[in-house]
Write a structure and sequence with these properties.
homodimer, about 375 residues, alpha/beta, Rossmann fold, seven-stranded parallel beta sheet, three-stranded mixed beta sheet, globular, Epimerase_deHydtase (chains A, B), NAD(P)-bd_dom_sf (chains A, B)
């Protein structure tokens, strides 16, 4: 299968590219390297030095693990539609895994500039991909990364993208109503609506993966070579909850739980992201189908998560405190949460549970870079509230 | 009350500005004159020559009907946030009526360029307005024009923006799920989600007016002076159903019903648009409230509408034929349709029904410009379907 990974320089894009290549698929990666600019703008870096994408692709190709060398396209899918058209005309993918978006909720809440640029970037990029697919690869399968954060925390069970609504004696199957929590999450909601429309009117096939919070940094392929690693963030902007807690534990800083910590979210191991994306690709959506999978394996409250990290840290001799800090976000800190995630399991997902061993593995890796942790970038400064 | 009209050069923006000014409000209008560019790009013009906005404002102000002269700001709310910030800092409105968007579904379906520019323009402009309001007029009321087309044609009753969903024994009040029919309609759905978020996190107050198809060209104020008229379109791009049929009847062309004509939509007289917007402004949303009104007065199928125009035309001695043409859009041509519109009536709306007199009045006005009708711009060429 020919698989195009959009956003191949990112935390998940790069491991996904290697994952497919290692399994015999022909892979191309595309990226505008925009994440490296956003990191510079925010003054943060991944914990481990990440070689340029060009170098990682070269190293991968020298290992000769795939049937063909991985192809690399550098360009911007949002600002340069001719780049996107060239990409699809040249590579002609069977499946497209689309990670190529500004990925941070706090970034989108910094100010007007970041809010607007996040939405323009994410929405335009996805529209350009839809038009390029319509033109060059109308039968290809678009696998789009969304987020569980699109749903918010409604007082009813969260279904997988669609819900049968019975209202005043009549019924319809409708898109599940969304209540996203940031301008970033909103951009993903906009994408979902645009993609559903393209499926409806052009007969495109798409799977929207509403992903939970991803943790971890190692996959089978990143472990093959020290320079094939992926971007691991622990800062307030790009660091997700568990990754950030793990670094705080190693740095001897209290784990900063936002507010009461009763916020419950879906989580998954980075290895399971790869498995889920592969399952989606191997079981493609039907012509005209806009299919949604909720992509997480376990749900925890933020406070539960902090306690798990504290326990694992203490088993390694670290002294770990937990601090409830003022919540920079506006979100319910105690709420009903029962999202469905059966679709991917029914396709065969075998998940990696969040065990103490997994957390200890992360902590040990982080300890090897303890000295370079930038403690000034971890605690929240970006606030949702009107200043 | 200080009322800011965004999109004051448009079909509805200009009559709205005069309507408020004539009723003793202090009014400012802003526009980037973008609609005049889009008209040029598509090769279409309004039926009657529309003087520059600057001239119309001057004529209005010379009539001294308002308490203060109407203010005019020329600039782009989507591309120039400093213009938007200046607007709010300088004028400090109590209410903002936001029409300043690319308003055509067919325009948004012309090609990739128009799809992307419509969404970027509409979404960025609204985001800039939200940030400007947060900064300078956080207590002001945003009255945003949406469209009934955001809902599509679900098989359940269409409520006004929100719906109480009962699902597996639990309940929540959620945004009504949308199934918009074009990239333009999608842009309005994106706006609604962004505005709901701003109300939720910043405590802004907003009314989203999901408006039906507007017809007519005359209001109390446009009738005051021959140069105070508003932009009346009959072309495939900017002409709405009834307006287009009326011009076809006068031009001796068959009324082009798209497909079977069973498509049912909400309609309203342009005079009632002004009344509805005024009712929204005089009864403002509460702090933090995202309120939605469905703004139409009567529902008709497209075929019903064609028959009404045919009857009125024949009463005036015109020879009117109806032709079912291939539907350029992708939409259901027979469907359930029961949208609610009680909120505005309960605030006191007294509507102008679509009588034969009303249609005959439109036809007579159009007859006075029969010779300048550009017949080549009326029949549909923009297609929704994958070519």
């Amino acid at each position: 299968m020919k698989i195009l990974i959009l956003g191949g320089d990112g935390y998940l894009g790069w491991p996904t590219a290697m994952h497919f290549a290692a399994r015999g698929h022909e892979v191309a990666v595309a990226d505008n390297l925009g994440k490296r600019f956003w990191e510079a703008e925010m003054g943060v870096t991944p914990l481990f030095h990440i070689p340029p994408l060009q170098r990682r692709v070269r190293i991968w190709n020298e290992m000769k693990r795939g049937p063909k060398p991985m192809k690399l396209y550098i360009g911007d899918i949002a600002q340069n539609h001719r780049f996107v058209y060239h990409l699809f005309e040249d590579f002609r993918p069977d499946a497209v895994v689309h990670y190529a978006e500004q990925p941070s909720a706090p970034y989108s809440m910094v100010s007007r500039l970041q809010a607007v640029s996040t939405q323009v970037n994410n929405v335009s990029g996805t529209l350009n991909v839809l038009f390029a697919m319509k033109r060059y690869t109308p039968a290809a399968h678009l696998i789009k990364l969304g987020t569980m954060g699109e749903y918010g925390t409604p007082n009813i069970d969260i279904e997988e993208g669609w819900i049968e609504i019975e209202h005043k004696g009549r019924k319809d199957r409708m898109l599940f109503p969304k209540q996203p929590g940031s301008f970033y999450h909103l951009s993903k909601v906009h994408d979902s609506h645009n993609i559903e429309f393209a499926c409806r009117i052009w007969g495109m096939r798409s799977t929207d993966l509403n992903q939970g919070v991803v943790y971890g940094m190692e996959t089978d392929e990143t472990a093959m070579h020290p320079e094939l690693l992926t971007s691991f963030h622990y800062d307030e902007i790009f660091g997700t909850a568990l990754n950030r807690f793990a670094v705080q534990a190693v740095a001897g800083m209290p784990l900063t739980v936002y507010g009461a910590g009763g916020q419950t979210r879906g989580f998954l191991n980075i290895r399971d992201t790869l498995q889920c994306v592969e399952l989606a690709a191997m079981n493609q959506a039907k012509e005209g189908e806009f299919r949604v999978f909720n992509q997480f394996t376990e749900a925890f409250s933020v406070m539960d998560l902090a306690h798990k990290v504290k326990e694992a840290g203490e088993a390694l001799g670290l002294n770990v405190a937990i601090a409830n800090v003022e919540n920079p976000r506006i979100e319910k800190e105690a709420h009903y949460y029962n999202p469905k995630n059966t679709a991917l399991f029914s396709l065969g997902l075998k998940h990696h549970p969040l065990t103490q061993d997994v957390i200890m593995g992360m902590l040990k890796k982080i300890m090897s870079s303890r000295d370079v942790i930038d403690r000034a970038t971890i605690n929240p400064t970006v606030k949702w509230r009107k200043s």
